[in-house]
């Protein structure tokens, strides 16, 4: 039930929120640090190893 | 994120790293990683990443010098994305 409510909330968020990019091609990607499933991640440090695909999505356990 | 996992070897072959970002907790992320067998990182966004990068489902390709080279809105298109990564190296 909890998951159903959660799915409904995500669906509502999906319908109400447009995919609005705040940055464009050619812009410098602002650096950030966040905790992750593999420890703390800082964008600039990951970029030292190669290009990065930064994939923003609505929520875990949703399609895509 | 499953779609990225399905093609993860193609991304790795091009030297690109995938970072998934949502507002889920680390605990939920860990469950999701385990369920889908993801072998890339999921980041916990406290709101600050969305504030900078935008809302909804967005995929950015950032080259090694930190410049955004491709932006995709909506469900990711891996073939197109991989093509764009390939273009970075040419």
How do the strands and helices of this protein lay out in sequence?
The complex is a heterodimer of chains A (64) and B (90).
Chain A: H1 2-16, E1 20-21, E2 33-36, E3 39-42, H2 43-47, E4 52-56
Antiparallel strand pairs in A: 2-3
Chain B: H1 2-6, H2 8-13, E1 17-22, H3 26-36, E2 41-44, H4 48-53, E3 54-55, E4 58-62, E5 68-73, H5 78-88
For the record, the count of structural domains of chain B works out to 1
Total number of distinct structural domains of chain A: 1
Shape of chain B: globular
Number of strands of chain A: 4
- Main CATH class of chain B: Alpha Beta
Defining key terms:
heterodimer, A: 64 residues, alpha+beta, B: 90 residues, Glutaredoxin, two-stranded parallel ribbon, 5 helices
Short summary:
The complex is a heterodimer of chains A (64) and B (90). Chain A has 64 residues and is an alpha+beta fold.
Describe it.
The complex is a heterodimer of chains A (about 60) and B (about 90). By secondary structure, chain A is of the alpha+beta class. Chain A has one domain. Helices cover about 30% and strands about 25% of the residues of chain A. Chain A contains 2 helices and 4 strands. The longest helix of chain A is centred in the first third of the chain and has 15 residues. The mean pLDDT of chain A is about 90. Chain B is about 45% helix and about 25% strand. Chain B has about 90 residues and is α+β, with helices and mostly antiparallel strands. In chain B, a hairpin with a 5-residue loop joins strand 4 and strand 5. Chain B is globular and about 40 Å long. A two-stranded parallel ribbon of chain B has the order 1-2. Chain B is built from 5 helices and 5 strands, in the order ααβαβαβββα.
């Amino acid at each position: 039930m909890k998951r159903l409510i959660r799915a409904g909330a995500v669906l509502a968020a999906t319908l109400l929120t447009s995919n609005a990019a705040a940055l464009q091609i050619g812009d410098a990607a602002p650096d950030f640090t966040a905790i992750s499933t593999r420890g703390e991640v800082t964008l600039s440090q990951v970029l030292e190893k190669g290009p990065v695909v930064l994939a923003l999505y609505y929520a875990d356990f949703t399609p895509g | 994120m499953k779609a990225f996992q399905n093609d993860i070897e193609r991304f790795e072959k091009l030297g690109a790293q995938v970072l998934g970002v949502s507002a889920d907790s680390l605990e939920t992320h860990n469950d999701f990683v385990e369920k889908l067998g993801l072998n890339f990182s999921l980041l916990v966004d406290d709101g600050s990443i969305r504030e900078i990068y935008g809302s909804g489902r967005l995929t950015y390709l950032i080259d090694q010098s930190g410049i955004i080279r491709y932006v995709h809105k909506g469900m990711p298109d891996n073939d197109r994305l991989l093509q764009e990564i390939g273009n970075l190296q040419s």
